[in-house]
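Case study 2.
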Amino acid sequence: MRHLRRLLTLALCLLLNGLPAHGGDTMRNTNSRPADPKQALERTSFQTGAAWDPMLQLRSDVAMCYGVGPDIGARIAGWKAQGYRVHVMTGVSWGQYQDYLYGRFDGVNHVDEAQMDRNGKVISHGGDVYYMSPGENYGKFLSLGVGRALDAGAEAIHLEEPEFWVRAGWSQGFRREWKAFYHEDWVPPDSSPEAQYRASQLKYFLYRRALTQIFEFVKGYNKAHGTDARCYVPTHSLINYAQWGIVSPESSLQKVGADGYIAQVWTGTARTPNVYEGHERQRTFETAYLEYGAMMNLVRAGGGTVWFLNDPIEDNPNHSWRDYRTNWESTLTASLLWPQVWRYEVMPWPERIFHGTYPTKDSTERRPGEAVAKEPIPPDYATELMTVINALNDMNQSSVTWDCGTRGVGVVVSDTMMFQRGGPSPSDPHLGSFYGLAMPLVKRGLPVEPVQLENAARPGALKPYKVLLMTYEGMKPMTAEDSAAIAAWVKAGGVLVFVDDDSDPYNHVRAWWNAAPNGDATPRQVLFAQMGLVKETAAGAHKVGKGTLLYDASSPAALTYQADGADHVRDLVRRACRAARLPYRETNFLALRRGPYVVAAGLDESLPDAPHQLTGHFVDLFDAGLPILDTVTLAPGRRYLLLDLDRIHSPSPAVLAAACKTLGARRLPQGGFRFYAEGPDATQASVRLRLAAPPKTVLLDDQALPAASQVWDTATRTLLLRFPNAAGRWITVRP
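Prediction:
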């Protein structure tokens, strides 16, 4: 009977843990891969145009196959066979869409729908892969490829980057759409502020129309086939699109069927220079923080899902691995400072990261004409990436604690920021109308949030904020309801800091705010009237219902060029906080605890105080060696992702941090510990375990791991292991 019970127990272990049913301490690499019970949450993903490859074994929950060409079915099947959930991503504004261009889809030549600039130059992504000005049938054409992906088993569709360049708007296709939309003849977009604004409104509409067609197709497919495929839109942030001169339908997409977004924020967007206290330079961390926040706010009020992209490199191939690594740590840290989000696209194109080579010197370090060798990813960076990717699977933490400056402050943004970025009126290339209000606060440790104006009327959208900063310089309210929602929030007790000198020429474009009965009013004057104030309201503090308006007649963009401009904004916010009974605090760091994880950044261009210090027992996840730190100094420019060992209360043995995916961890009957590990071939795994005592033996599959690859830390009772990653292997720790 005891033998029968033993056999039944071992068989149950085999079913539940994927472990062998032969018992004893003999552990061989003959086991199947254990299941990941949390994979259904879809916590992490990556996009790739490649078939499955052992060097691309990131072991995220989701593999996103890129493109909807004829081979999409085979690629989906290949990744599914390796245990991944599979989504499909395809470009919206450009792609291998020659069947549409040359009439093979509907018998009509659509080449004149390619985006064109004022000089008659077609805007291309290379060859005849054009950025499109989408006509009536464009969304229907893209739905064909989406249908192929759904037939092949795609669980979600990602419609990437609906982008219309501000410098475009001269093609015949766009002119036809202008006539149909406005019932007026086309005028050159750069002929007046009004023409530019109206051109952007139309561009916004055209991509929303195309995406609506695809959303409706997917909904119809789900109904017909009993499926539940979702639609996401991977898109740059509103902030980046405005600065780069691109129009995209951004906040309006949820209203027409999008299930959410991927926030495409990375070094390439976040290193775009801005101006602060008169100095123009890259501020990658702060810019990324604000970009991610703008994307988070798109879904916070209206529901939906948002993923944050983290890219270990960028599209520019001329930077060194050291540059990429430093900037990736900044953007990654910035993304983790938004605890509402716990889903991540851990990288696009892993094939270019693990198969690609990049310069040994950064472009800024080379002499003119200097030839520079290229090298593959440094081993320590690859290990660090895998450590962080594994940690990202664990960011859905209920315990969240801030150590920072004053919270509860927002800066209002609008999709119309993209409408004012072209000629003829010169626009600030550094988007100072936004950064002039936001950057002074972030630099002093206030985790200010971009607040989407188009969501302001949604129930509860403005509830988290005691103080809002706002301007109509560089943006305008799309509807009277958006403006009225701000007025109602102030009347209910909010404090609004409105900074605007009324000099923006776009104040006078033909729009709802200067139509009857408003006359020639500016949007600011209409907002003040909605608050019950007179048109000629002077600068200063004004009581509005239970709330307060602080009106400052300055240009936010102009303030960025002034050495004391940031202090001026902070003085306004300090006054606003007093009015809101909100304690005002500044710091030279930002620190956030998410469960056992600490996300922290030391700020430069900040307070001259001594750097803040953290004390305890921390594992540094930005270090391939997973060292244990007793003291962490948040010096200016330093970024940290730490695992606080003092906050982990799970009993030993346990996997604490790993540069590989670990599954099936369990105690062995004889007191040992075993788990399954997998990661990209040709990379090095670091794993830190918590154990009751130093082990006698560690087996990698069925071979003893050399003593040199094991480091015991007595103070924390943890063991560091180092071994080569592989598509799957078992680690056994014997006491």
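Residues 193-225 form the longest helix (33 residues).
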